[in-house]
């Protein structure tokens, strides 16, 4: 029986050598982070800083609310604009 010709399928165009090296380097970095033990994962420099809780426990000491958010979601009132701002996002209720 004769050997079959290889299957011809659509594929992306090959990258230039410099971009291929960069692509493979980025893939190795992602795999290293994915395989890192818990607690040793480093944050990406562009990742936003996680918010910290304003209190410990389940009860908000200021409001007495149980099981609510650990910090006030809206923090700053912009008087001249009449909007609430939080982490650079503005809401107009």
UniProtKB/TrEMBL annotation:
This is Succinate dehydrogenase assembly factor 4, mitochondrial. One of its GO terms (cellular component) is mitochondrion. InterPro entries: SDHF4. Pfam families: DUF1674 (PF07896). Belongs to the SDHAF4 family. One of its GO terms (biological process) is mitochondrial respiratory chain complex II assembly. Residues 34-72 are annotated as: Disordered.
